[in-house]
UniProtKB/TrEMBL annotation:
UniProt xrefs under SUPFAM superfamilies: ALDH-like
The organism of origin for this protein: Streptomyces cinnamoneus (Streptoverticillium cinnamoneum)
Protein name in the entry: Aldehyde dehydrogenase
Pfam families for the chain: Aldedh
Lineage of source species: Bacteria, Bacillati, Actinomycetota, Actinomycetes, Kitasatosporales
UniProtKB keywords: Oxidoreductase
InterPro entries: Ald_DH/histidinol_DH, Ald_DH_C, Ald_DH_N, Aldehyde_DH_dom
Domain Aldehyde dehydrogenase: 45-488
């Protein structure tokens, strides 16, 4: 009989909250967090109730601003920007470096907040914090050459990002933007990450960085954060529907922009035999329940190889572990190294379960359906945000699972017989961020890979956003505006020669680095 699990002592939400209050009392009140604008922590906005996806219990909710206050915050950020852009680079480097030291000192608290707020397993939560810190340290070391002959933007950078990577995507971008001479504005994601971002911004503000952090609904804040004339650049990470609205707004205004949107990332298997190398990578694709922009939820498999593929795929997916990220058997046991915890909320879990049921009803063949009972949970805990792994063969064309990213632990498999079918199936979503082709013949890979509409294509290995020098972008509807990563991230938030054409995907041109 499996032991009864307990919550690891010292990891309770109440304990994490008390630690935040003790560390940053200027930002955390007894029952709420504050917004940060005009260099001050403001007790404004209307706090909304919120629950953790981990077990459905209450946590701090976002203090949502109205549109008028958001405009005041953006105007104040412009004032900060005009002062900050004249700060010598050496001083900016010192302030950002001090911020990184503070983040590193409190790394485990930031990671614990990520566990409670967005359900990341402990291993992945710590990795999110570490990637932010180490990634920005690289920019501190390299920023002199990257900004040579360049100047900051005319106004602050406005950041609107999804909830899944608050540190390694959002905080990382904010610190690099500030390092390059810009004031930065960020909207807390509606679905999670509020306390983690508030603590990170409190540590940055103490070191003198010109950071603004506000909460609110998209309808209330978009006019200020996207269309306001004070904003020098809009950086967006999220879904295609919202991204399309942002793209329309920035295009009308001719505003600098970086818009990363979702796409259906695919993994093709063609004339392939190295199955022992593929199997461990299949399990890794389930990290964080595939709730990331570079997840691989679609396998496109040569029909003649399907039996061999399945013989290695099914044991891998059956080995995936999930459950409460902080549940242990004894008080001194290490936190579990799970592949994933909950989805971002119970509503998303229901939506995904409904999509799976509908796809099966319309003809998809279930190859694997995990059981919730296989998860690691506390006795009696709310498990409504958890979805066990599911694999479907041949999702119908009428299903969202056929053409869109599920953002959950659901794989779909499509069988093909020809190279033309392979490429068509791998290009199902009008552009993607990453793709992979497992193919024994290197020459065949080199011939097929350029025809796959993804910014990065791996040969038998998954691709990711990358760190440090590695560039990142997307094709088709998966990306609009300037590409980022490495030197391109700094170029996107600074100004160079008047005739400069930034690498990116723009309405009037597409320029690869």
């Amino acid at each position: 009989m499996a032991p009864t699990l307990i919550l690891r002592p010292g990891t309770e939400w109440a304990t994490a909250w008390q630690r935040c209050q003790a560390l940053a009392p200027e930002a955390f009140r007894d029952d709420r967090v504050l917004n940060l604008w005009n260099g001050l922590w403001q007790a404004d906005g209307r706090p909304l109730p919120a629950t953790t996806p981990v077990d459905g219990t209450p946590i701090a909710g976002p203090p949502r601003l109205d549109a008028a206050t958001a405009h005041h915050a953006v105007r104040a950020s412009l004032d900060q920007h005009r002062a900050w852009r004249d700060v010598p680079l050496a001083e900016r480097k010192a302030m950002v470096g001090a911020t990184l030291d503070a983040l590193a000192e409190h790394r485990d608290l930031l990671a614990l907040l990520l566990v409670w707020e967005i359900g990341k397993p402990w291993r992945l939560a710590r990795a999110d914090v570490d990637r932010a810190i180490e990634g920005v340290r690289w920019y501190v070391a390299e920023i002199d050459r990257m900004t040579a002959g360049r100047v900051p933007l005319p106004g602050p950078v406005s950041n609107i990002a999804s909830w899944n990577y608050p540190m390694s995507v959002l905080v990382h971008a904010m610190l690099v933007q500030a390092l390059a001479g810009n004031a930065v504005i960020a909207k807390t994601p509606t679905d999670g990450g509020l306390a983690c971002l508030t603590l990170a911004c409190a540590l940055a503000a103490r070191e003198g960085l010109p950071v603004t952090l506000v909460s609110g609904g998209g309808a209330d804040l978009s006019e200020a954060l996207v269309r306001a004339p004070e904003v020098g650049c809009v950086s967006f990470v999220g879904g295609r529907d919202t991204g399309a609205r942002v793209a329309t707004a920035v295009a009308d205004l001719g505003k600098r922009h970086i818009l990363e949107q979702e796409g259906l990332n695919t993994w093709g298997v063609w004339n392939f035999t190295d199955w022992d190398a593929l199997a461990p990578q299949i399990r890794k694709t389930f990290d964080y329940a595939k709730q990331r922009c570079t997840a691989y939820p679609r396998f496109v498999v040569q029909r003649s190889a399907f039996a061999d593929f399945l013989a290695h795929y099914l044991p891998a997916v059956r080995s995936v572990t999930f459950g409460h990220p902080l549940a242990v058997a004894t008080a001194d046991e290490d936190l579990p190294a799970l592949d994933f915890g909950p989805l971002i909320n119970a509503a998303k879990a229901k939506e995904l379960n409904d999509q799976v049921a509908e796809a099966v009803d319309r003809g998809a063949i279930p190859l694997h359906r995990g059981e919730l009972s296989a998860g690691r949970f506390l006795p009696g805990q709310d498990t409504s945000a958890y979805v066990p792994p599911v694999t479907l063969l041949s999702p119908p064309s009428t299903s969202p699972l056929h053409h869109a990213e599920p953002f959950g632990p659901v794989d779909t498999i499509v069988l093909v017989d020809t190279e033309a079918e392979l490429l068509s199936a791998m290009n199902a979503s009008n552009g993607a961020l990453v793709a992979t082709l497992s193919c024994d013949d290197r020459a065949a890979y080199e011939r097929l890979a350029p025809q796959i509409r993804a910014f990065k294509v791996g040969h038998g290995k998954p691709r990711s956003r990358g760190d440090r020098e590695e560039l990142f972008g997307g094709f088709g509807a998966s990306w609009r505006g300037a590409f980022v990563g490495g030197e391109l991230l700094v170029r996107a938030v600074t100004q160079g020669p008047a005739d400069e054409r930034a690498p990116g995907n723009f309405p009037d041109y597409h320029l690869m680095p």
